[in-house]
Amino acid sequence: METTVKDSLFSPAKVGPLELKNRIVMAPMTRSRAINTIPGENVATYYAQRASAGLIITEGTSPSANGIGYARTPGIFTKEQIESWKKVTSAVHAKGGKIIVQLMHVGRIAHPANMLPGAKIVAPSAIAAKSSMWTDAQGMQPMPQPAELSETEIKQTIAEFAQAAKNAIEAGFDGVELHGANGYLIEQFINPSSNKRKDAYGGSIENRSRFLLETTKAVIDVIGKDRVGVRLSPYSTFNDLEVYPEIPETYKYIAEQLNALDILYLHVIDAMANASEEGRALIAAIRKAFKNTLILAGGYDKAKAVRALEEGRGDLIAFARYFIANPDLPERFRKELPLAEGKEELFYAAGDEGYIDYASLN
Fold it and tell me: Do β-strands 99-103 and 132-135 pair in parallel, antiparallel, or remain unpaired?
């Protein structure tokens, strides 16, 4: 991490080729406004309103039809999607912002009512998540059992990630983030409670990490290592995952391997890890193993963020829900002004209300 000042949330940062105006990251958040998987004009407005962040990471965006699981979430695998995203990146860049797209394949966290015709629900193993999902057509529905990916299909899925990364650069994004957190496909491979495979993609720590690392390498091959980030969430039980004894060894190994690949950044949700001494030790070990930019996320307010930077635990801090109701969050932080409250009942609604109607100071 190249920087001259390390103790301020508002100091500029150099992250690979990116010059960031501050160390405040807008975290990826599902917003469910992409009708028919297409980000519309309101999506461009939404991200442009928040371009004062040092870096924006978009909502999870699917690399393929099989990767869409939630209602009204976007993709980046068709020409129409790419053209629509161009409007978003142009709007953010016009405001002086930087924007990276998060590539999210949901794996088993899906329902057919939210998917495109011909798509199928896939996962490392044929184990259904024990939870339900909202569908616009049928209301809340249990998630069905996924199909286990064959090794050939795994290679195809990795190729879809690589093509999506190429599409992202065509659409004007400054890079991509691979979503290896929160119980989606990549983490379904990492976690032994969702991965019961007996082949090269299951069993040992090295095998369970293989899908993430092969996907990262494939994306690097097409867009370059200085445009690739990865998000992880050790100790997370989100989306029906379980805590397992090998978590520290698993994530130390992954951090070491991603460091060897020299990717742009590692983005770690550390909220769950910080709940235990073992977890805090793991975050410190990840910090030591990974030499490039480390982004921390998970329950940070301004004071906690400044403390984390001053203590050297991370280089950038990501904020999620604060950005929903405070499009100019960095300015509010800087002036120590009260933060507006978001309308939770509209977080995942379909319209502009509770999306692009929150006021900025100006």
Answer: unpaired
